[in-house]
Amino acid sequence: MRFPSKIGKKTVINKIPIRNNFKPYHQINIIPQNQKVTLITPNQSKEIDALNNWNRKTLRNYQKMTEHKKQNEINKETEEQMIQDKKRIMKCMNDESITNEEINTLYEETLEAMTTMLFSKKNPQKKREENIEAMKHWLNHFQIDHASLPIIHIAGTKGKGSTATMTETILRESGYKTGLFTSPHLIDVRERIVMNGKPIDKRTFIRNYWELTAYGSDASFASYFRFLTLMALKTFVDAKVDVVILEVGIGGRLDATNVITPLVCGITSIGYDHEAILGHTLTEIANEKSGIMKPGIPVIVQPQLEEAMNAIQRMSIKQKAPLWLSASTTPYKLSMLGEHQHCNAAQALALADYFMKKKPLVGQPQPIKLATMPSAYPVFEPSLSMIKGVTQARYGGRGHIMHMNGHVFFVDGAHTNKSISLATNWFHQMTMKESDSFLKSQSWFFDVPATAPLRMPQLDSEVVEKRICIFNFTKNRSPQTLLQPLLSSSIFDEIWIVPTDSKLTKFTKGGEVSSAERAQQVAIQQIIEDQQGPKTRLLSSIHESMVRLSESKAKHHVFVTGSLYLVGDYIRYLSMIHAVK
User: Fold this and answer.
1) Whole-prediction pTM value?
2) Please, how many CA atoms are within 13 Å of residue 150, restricted to the half-sphere of its CB?
């Protein structure tokens, strides 16, 4: 590029300062508008435009360089602080005299550090395509021998968490030392990593977190789900469990969990969800889900829609993976309420049966004739321990009843059209057919600190005045699609639109709703009004909704759905009130 050789020392074209030698913006003097400027020819104008573009580009590069340098300095300071924190906290954890109160304090500090490390950085490498290679790198770096773990890997759109939980309970009741990894959590992140039916203790979580943060500033490390998957595998390897049940996060093919080679795979019901990531057709979504298949590894799949089943079958042929169909129901009375849970239970029993025959606690593995084409899983007689496991399994926030001083809360984290439809049917059946005493007997709460946000008076009335739906949704989902089964059911007297609690650790009386949250609430309200739905209320917080219910003189049946985060907040709130009793 050729620049003008003789131009006035300062020339202004459209009020933009031009100089032959670049200086940072704050050193450039702007010429006042009333000052005369040098007249230029058309050819000089073109050359000055070129110089102007060069100045702008150079300025952007300078700003980027400055920002990058500043970020490196911040990262260096953060890493140095992290190293100091690690030394201090690990020293505390090695002290056998440490009190529970001190552990609680260190746990909160660890959660804060994890949030800073995994959410505060701009991370250009945080792409799903890099999940597998990044996981392989860090598993190798920390010498986590995940190949030693016998794993059941479960993918799907609906029911994969419930199926994984049932499978774990069956195997635990059958005598196996189990590890379970699911997502998301409802109240405490430790819910994701379960050992023998209980979330890992705070001491283990703290120790494992800081042991895995030696190189936490690396961009490929900074993914919340990726990190927790790594922590789960480390925890299970260290504990030498007999079996790991590993639930996929999103999809399957590119999921962070797909770094393992399982003993058997499970694919639950496939439907529409995360379309922007997985695809907009059932074929595309099923291809991603069935991406967990490995050569020669059997797959047990739930009954599917034809389009999804065809994609699964093509993948099983490609991978030469034997394919079985689990039954669609069971004859048992399950603790996980809802007819759809029987399909999950049937698959869990089949997965557990296959695992126990291949990895018996006593004796030699039993031969199983593998299917070359989709066929029903071989008939077997579940043992008493298997039946006990599948009937007693519970999974928070799915078909979950919480009886609170007369009001009954039915909470289900359904967040797709199909799952909300199933959950709405469950709510309708429970409220129409079951007695209050039965609902009370099915009620259960989480173990949380007894710090009640408010007190709810006991209601003596036997009459249920209203059926109230409390609804919200998370981003990247269509509110019209989610609301459709709620509105078409015509069973609700009111729909309350409530934002989730962003703090997740405390509850305040009221509080301001952000402009984005209010806009979302108004959009939901408009959809309901356009379809002539029930009366709506826009509330500012979970606390406000609970205050309204506590002031009511009549009983209400309350259905909370649309988002696992919303459901988790209500479970926490209600459990806190219950713990004070």
Assistant:
1) 0.82
2) 19
